[in-house]
Amino acid sequence: MRRKWDPRVKAKIVLEGLTGRCVNELCRSHELRPGQYYKWREHFLKNCHLLFEREKRAPDKAELAIENEKLKRLVGELTLELNNGRSIR
């Protein structure tokens, strides 16, 4: 049966190895094969830059309400133009 490792535990173990602790000793203390440690380390090093990327935030309710009002106004203006026989471009 395979062990499920918590991502925080994986990160902690990888960081211990990166700070200079002997990998064999580290793996022994966590009952982990060195090959697995090196896979985690590789994954960690390939993806650690993602931590510093800005998260795209969702617009808040006030921003959505303002955008909604602008769109309603635009729809109203276009409807008036159509009803008056003008072309839209």
Q: How would you characterize this protein structure?
A:
It is a single chain. The protein has 89 residues and is mainly alpha-helical. It folds into two domains: 1-53; 59-89. The chain has four helices and no strands. Helix 1 (7-18) crosses helix 3 (34-47). It is rod-shaped, with a radius of gyration of 28 Å. This is Transposase. It comes from Maridesulfovibrio ferrireducens. It holds the Pfam family HTH_Tnp_1.
Layout of helices and strands, plus pairs?
Layout: H1 7-18, H2 23-30, H3 34-47, H4 61-83
- Helices and strands, in order, run as HHHH
Largest sheet: none
List segments where confidence is low: pLDDT < 50 over at least 5 consecutive residues: none
Helix percent reads: 55-70%
What's the β-strand tally?
Answer: 0
Estimate the global geometry from the Cα principal axes.
rod-shaped
Question: Mean of the pLDDT scores?
Answer: 90
Query: What value does the Rg take, in angstroms?
Result: 28 Å
InterPro entries: Transposase_8, Trp_repressor/repl_initiator
Protein name: Transposase
GO molecular function, one term: transposase activity
Keywords:
single chain, 2 domains, rod-shaped, mainly alpha, 89 residues
Briefly characterize the structure.
One of its GO terms (biological process) is DNA transposition. By secondary structure, this protein is mainly α.
